Amino acid sequence: MIIQLSDTITSLQKDALLNSLSGLNIKSNEVKTQFKNYIIGIPKVDFDIRTIGNLDGIEDIHRVSDAYKLVSKKWKINRTIIDLGDDVTIGGNELAIMAGPCSIENEAQIENTVQHLLKNNIKIMRGGVYKPRSSPYAFRGLGMDGLKLFYKHCKENGIKVITEVMQVSQVEEMLDYVDVFQVGARNSQNFNLLDVLGEVDKPVLIKRGMSGTIEELLASAEYVFSNGNEKLLLCERGIRTYENAYRNTLDLNAIPILKEKSHLPVIVDPSHGIGLRQHVATMALAGVVAGADGIIIEVHEQPENAFSDGQQTLYYEQAEELYRKAKVLFQNI
Amino acid sequence: MIIQLSDTITSLQKDALLNSLSGLNIKSNEVKTQFKNYIIGIPKVDFDIRTIGNLDGIEDIHRVSDAYKLVSKKWKINRTIIDLGDDVTIGGNELAIMAGPCSIENEAQIENTVQHLLKNNIKIMRGGVYKPRSSPYAFRGLGMDGLKLFYKHCKENGIKVITEVMQVSQVEEMLDYVDVFQVGARNSQNFNLLDVLGEVDKPVLIKRGMSGTIEELLASAEYVFSNGNEKLLLCERGIRTYENAYRNTLDLNAIPILKEKSHLPVIVDPSHGIGLRQHVATMALAGVVAGADGIIIEVHEQPENAFSDGQQTLYYEQAEELYRKAKVLFQNI
Amino acid sequence: MIIQLSDTITSLQKDALLNSLSGLNIKSNEVKTQFKNYIIGIPKVDFDIRTIGNLDGIEDIHRVSDAYKLVSKKWKINRTIIDLGDDVTIGGNELAIMAGPCSIENEAQIENTVQHLLKNNIKIMRGGVYKPRSSPYAFRGLGMDGLKLFYKHCKENGIKVITEVMQVSQVEEMLDYVDVFQVGARNSQNFNLLDVLGEVDKPVLIKRGMSGTIEELLASAEYVFSNGNEKLLLCERGIRTYENAYRNTLDLNAIPILKEKSHLPVIVDPSHGIGLRQHVATMALAGVVAGADGIIIEVHEQPENAFSDGQQTLYYEQAEELYRKAKVLFQNI
Amino acid sequence: MIIQLSDTITSLQKDALLNSLSGLNIKSNEVKTQFKNYIIGIPKVDFDIRTIGNLDGIEDIHRVSDAYKLVSKKWKINRTIIDLGDDVTIGGNELAIMAGPCSIENEAQIENTVQHLLKNNIKIMRGGVYKPRSSPYAFRGLGMDGLKLFYKHCKENGIKVITEVMQVSQVEEMLDYVDVFQVGARNSQNFNLLDVLGEVDKPVLIKRGMSGTIEELLASAEYVFSNGNEKLLLCERGIRTYENAYRNTLDLNAIPILKEKSHLPVIVDPSHGIGLRQHVATMALAGVVAGADGIIIEVHEQPENAFSDGQQTLYYEQAEELYRKAKVLFQNI
């Protein structure tokens, strides 16, 4: 049960409400976000919702039987739009495109990518500075030095930055240099990280886990929301199956399902999904038709020389064709 | 290695060729299809292809290192078009749409469906008369009586019939009443059935197995082709994964991959794929964008009363909207 | 609901019973096996079982809510023992061991294997004469000629034969030359084959499908049983997962679960399960501890020269050590 | 390539070695653990190992082509034994048993469990104080207060403590109150956490991820080892598959494979594996036969009242029977 509190609720009214809930054997979780105050009530037995509904200081009450509550569409019918400022939004009437290299490599590469994005009117650049790698001996990213350079060049050119955060201690140091925090597939159930990202006022994109269920992804989003951050994006990036013909099995079924169950925008990542350059654009377009609000793709001036993920990274010309087609398709479905 | 024989090859020339192959320690498999004669050579060691290439009676030679040979695109660049007669083709410049109920139930239902198809200019009707059911106590289809009624009504109205064949003994009795044989997911590696279907002159649509790999699907198609039947369609219908939010995980990655590896047309089955009526049309359209040559969908006048699979079956109005959108999309990608 | 009919039930009594069931809106399936007559009732709504229970001609009635009925332990508490004659049983107080090559190759190999089995007091020989192969160009077995040789040598030496049947038409021709029919993983849901195997009086071992669920395996067994054959064995042989470190993921969890849900004996196949010779014995022993009634393993005088599956086939000495250990372990758990 | 440095290597000798490696285009990673100094060389091209082998200050050199190096058995033949002090070891000639509740709930429960362990001569107690829960509204553990109580009671009774650590910041605060850090399935690729655990001198048990491969588990262990901590345990706890008859699919194949590939001890967790109380003991015993060096199980005085995981938690009597059988079985295989 989600109880939206009135903005004018008094302490006395709130105490009365919490007492009523307690008397009904309902566990209360107070949630204060950037926008609203809520109480999430987890009832142990059935009860008559009217006994609460007429208390003072309540704006609205919704029963939500799913394990996830605040991210559910059962409660919030209108779709969430994420506003990154400077007229850059995700989840609205325009397809959001996030493009850039797998890893930030050096300043020249950043500049080069920024020019590519400017030329194509792409407003969000992706790029990793902290890289999760299965081997400890592999390149693990440029870290904060890379991020600062990355952010500086983007900022100067009106481009927003999305980059992966891997642990709690990085959140604060990265905060001033990102526009969207990305939580990777391996951290999709790193609950401490999700807790802390719930306390900041920057949007968070959460990727589905390697073998994460739809329900788990929504529950992970609930972690962030219930800690105070409503600015959330969900991302399908491929799941692990028995099939070895592609890197991961991009699961486009997840897109209509997530949009049915949740009010949050959904992004598709075909680069990690199918993981084969020659098919990335096709899967991106299929993702748009499946209902994605945005696409996140890997692009590099010279994919064959990229520090990581070269085999799934588009050449500029390939990416440009994709941008054009994706925008047209998004407007025509 | 695929050796295409000249139409004018003589017995002496062929003997000479077989002798040469044998001398090179290459195992020969002679394949005679509706269109051509081939020898599939499986070499045990490396050899110089020129020693064969200049023998008489050979039209062309192709090295194909994959486990599948004749269905590979490495050998045949031009895409295969399946001609069902009366200007109904699959794999060409028009999207093939196959629609109809999960199970053929009675004559009224057949007529009703035929009218729906005629109204929408759909040329191929699907419908099961032999139903694979996990429980022996469930409805198993109307059998040959149902098929004869089904075929009669379709034939009278210029509509082609696709229906599932489940075992070898059914092939002959069904032969005069089908336009396309369908091999279901559970029979995707029923090699005896595939052998026999290779001996008839009717197209065969092979569904990917429940947990079938791309490679296995192509090898199953190779069974049919190498027995003499070049008229083949491949079908993605969802795989089995850990995710329970949908019936199966429709794997659209398979479509660009199959079209890259094989010259055969690829059909997408979103009804069994996602298995939820409200998302079937979305996934069908995503499948078209992913490169499908056709879609096969379940439609019923009253899905809630269907003998089987009602929850994934479209209402007529839903289907009509899908037909329109799918045709437009196919022409614009 | 399972109604066991009395051996002395009269036609009039049976008609009265069927009428009662029909009146209660219960669909009846009559089952006549080697041992008993049953009626499987599938009720559409709830009803009072006492209204049937006091009719004449009924021996016993059991409610079974699972999709599978006759193979369920809810109905038959005592474990089923399969009697192959000559004091060879499966499911009793001795571990059943079935050993032999993947493929029957020639008479010398059969004789050699028989001597190995005799030396070790193993009573059941496995060996394939019809081989399901993903490629049509691979060796597909010696067929009936091989089977006749195989059976002759075994018969002369008091050894029972288990071999795979791949299609309906083979059942009759193989019938006199097998002691146990084996249904392979790819045919685990070949319902026509299961139907026909239900009509013969030879035991049937059904392997779990590549990605078959426990429930599906039991439903496949129900097909055979409900067609009249109670002599059934279930076999865990590994499932398909994302893990590539082994051929299949031998799923030992299935053993205690199958023995909890069904009264049928359970056999473990570690050769196909883990698929690596050096670990086959370990997994066989773990399977025994997990509760298997028997093991089926691949053994060959010279595994490196076997026609198929050599990498998972034991040398004689390895097998002999396994036989000894497995028998001891079985008696001590 | 692993270069074990001599304990008496001089700075000059080490510089010469690093220079040689650099000259050979080999990337060097210096590793200093509790026991030894190593250089892990990642060569870009093939080279003659003798050019390095005769330099001074080198104790031994091993080629290891796997992605993981220091945890590989190719380098270290002798199995690793983890010494927890007070004669409690893991990986030696005795089966290690770790038992206790899923969650630490209160002091009475700790005492009660300790008495149960003392009675059965079990030396290691498990219990969670930081609980990863998919829902933010679920019980998340007693935290440090619970851990201090847990450790105090165990310490007083000569029992070692194993408990889960979920994030970097917890490592330091937990350090004095744990004997073994446990990394849960969801954190199996939390590389920052693994890095930090590599810097402490306490053993670390790493669970395989939800859909983790064998190779990924070993690479995660390599993270800890290459940061300086050789005291490592690997744990199989069930993987995620399509099968819903059990909580997870306990993958016993992993045990012989991990013991073949690595010198580290392997623990089996049947409680999370099969997740059904009535089968936990059976799977634990099967795990012992498969080669596990230890078992970790959930036990509670009143499983039905446990704060979490009650359905997979053993009653004391069940656990006691398991302890007895497991110890006997371990000595007899």
UniProtKB/TrEMBL annotation, chains A, B, C, D:
A single GO BP: aromatic amino acid family biosynthetic process
Q: What is its EC number?
A: 2.5.1.54
One annotated GO molecular function is: 3-deoxy-7-phosphoheptulonate synthase activity
The entry's keywords: Transferase
Entry superkingdom: Bacteria
Is Phosphoprotein set as a keyword in this record?
Answer: no
Q: Which InterPro entries match?
A: Aldolase_TIM, Class-I_DAHP_synthase, DAHP1/KDSA, DAHP_syn_2
- Top-tier EC class: transferase
The DAHP synthetase I/KDSA domain covers 80-326
Specify whether Transferase is a keyword of the entry. Answer: yes
Instruction: Supply the PANTHER family for this chain.
Output: PHOSPHO-2-DEHYDRO-3-DEOXYHEPTONATE ALDOLASE (PTHR43018)
By its UniProt entry, which NCBIfam families does this protein fall under?
A: DAHP_synth_Bsub, PRK08673.1, PRK12595.1
Q: What is this protein called?
A: 3-deoxy-7-phosphoheptulonate synthase
What species is this protein from? Vicingus serpentipes
